[in-house]
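Morning - WT7 inputs below, output right after.
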Amino acid sequence: MVEGQVYPVSDEWKKRAKVDAEGYEQLHGRSIADPGSFWLEQARRLDWIKRPEIAGDWSFDEDDFHIQWFADGKLNVSANCIDRHLKTRGDATAIIWEPDDPNEQAKSFTYRDLHREVCRFANVLKREGVTKGDRVTIYMPMIPEAAFALLACARIGAIHSVVFAGFSPEAIAGRITDCDSAFLITADEGRRAGRTVPLKANVDKAAAQARALKKVIVVRATGGDVAMTEGRDIWYDEAVRDVADDCPAEPMGAEDPLFILYTSGSTGKPKGVLHTSGGYLLWASFTHELAFDYRPGEIFWCAADIGWITGHSYIVYGPLANGATTLMYEGVPNWPDASRIWQVVDKHRVNTLYTAPTALRALMAEGDEPVKATSRASLRLLGTVGEPINPEAWRWYHHVVGEDRCPIIDTWWQTETGGHMIAPLPGAHALKPGCATKPMPGIDPQIVDADGNVLTGEAQGNLVIARSWPGQMRTVWNDQERFFQTYFATYPGKYFTSDGCRRDANGDYWITGRVDDVINVSGHRMGTAEIESALVLHESVAEAAVVGRPHDVKGQAIYAYVTLNSGVESSEELRDTLIKWVRSEIGPFAAPEAIQFAPALPKTRSGKIMRRILRKIAEGDTSSLGDTSTLADPAVVDHLIDNRIS
Ligand code: WT7
């Protein structure tokens, strides 16, 4: 990385931004020196039924392990995102919805519209028997009803568990069963890039395996023909006809669960990350306003999917808590053509665009013309999230897309953190391509070595967070022990992020990527163990090892080594079968790009697979395999090299 390249805050941004360099130092300094009063003051940005008198109450130590924020406070998240704006901005636009097909009509909803839609949705849920604390699975395309469904759950105190619409029936079933969810909201079909996605049909297949499921509410999105199961499935448009326009918001404790979101880790089974009401909403609202310097009236577009945490925090909760206008886009950035994303920016006069490096790399590959064919004059700020952004893509985003006038806010965070953790504030921090720069107020990052020694000054090592913050996940659903073991056991007293990180001479943080067996394919986080578990479920497979290898557009691509059961012959056909198998076990985005059949995998004498070697071979970097002397059978490596898939 070119360390020398620095883009200082422009004079214009110094003047206009809410927080300048000095303001940041003050905020961050106070948040660390006196977190109690700092966070109680910040809590005023929410509307409380009972205002909290305590801020953080937490310990990361094993014998007293607990995390709570604003625990004596009461509020309702949906009322914070809707009702409290009605008096001042009831007629302001809350949601702009842009359809997949550019020839179809966009829709928009004022805060008053949103109130009615969410209340009606909540009343349908209530009538179907959903009560406070129930888990509701949401498997939806990017249509306005997806946002209504989240907020309707929050309104009545139900816990939503959104499953990304790209997941397979098996993956949905696993998530329904894990959180014992009796209710599911879906649509007949989804649409993306002109194609339809059979959502209801996938739910039907999932339901056959998920005993917990009792009721399915189906939103009519495409009008496609779907099967309905008597007694279990209901059409939303029929159910909503005769419900009231108003639904009281349930008073919730700040620590009552708001949602579960499953994410991959380094073991086979996805974890149900649990976020609660008060701290999460405060963090989403606080970070949305600071990192994007959000001002009322601006159009904010987070081009993520509601199925991921980015969509939860920056399409729905953060922007709506701040009374923003949030844009929801059904389609993909480059359909019908490579100009679409910029056309949408012009059409809705988007001021802030927040997207992922993988999308930028795909668009960059189409050249500058599709960008230059549009105006983009409305843009004032650009954001990125999901993986380290390569400086080349950063510069393209800055120069070609933003015409050198929009700061690039590179936000490092995780499903577990609820919102931004390390990111430049546009009026405060000089930018460096590929660098997430400084911690948000309240965040106390440290870099530690493998033994947990805290490294000071310029340093490279593992990134930990030394104290709790309001948006921190509270537990793994139903598995507090796994929560502790995954995040707090490695470096006692600290939250371990599983990311590597470097701090430069200027105190800026550069995220270097995961240090565990989690890979990042087109911004989708995947545990290699999850893909391996799926592969070994197939009757022909004895053993599998999955690694990531660099990919120009996707960031990483999935490379799988598969050992077949004895007597099973390898073939191209079997390769295709296994790729399809993973698609159906997890989802299309988890399909391996390459499968190499391997009679044996490189193992230590104690039987541990040496992934370092497998990664090197997949990358084609076979000259520097390092020490192979600890291998049980070094000859295995030569066979792997000879049969590598390029
Ligand atoms: C992992 C978390 C946070 C929402 C989207 C992904 C990587 C995320 C950045 C960034 C470098 C990043 C990390 C992290 N990551 N943003 N700006 N720079 N790396 O959420 O699916 O929970 O994945 O994504 O490796 O641990 P997620």
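Note: Residues 263, 309-310, 385-388, 410-415, 436, 497, 499, 511, 513-514, 520, 525 surround WT7 (CB under 6 Å).

O.
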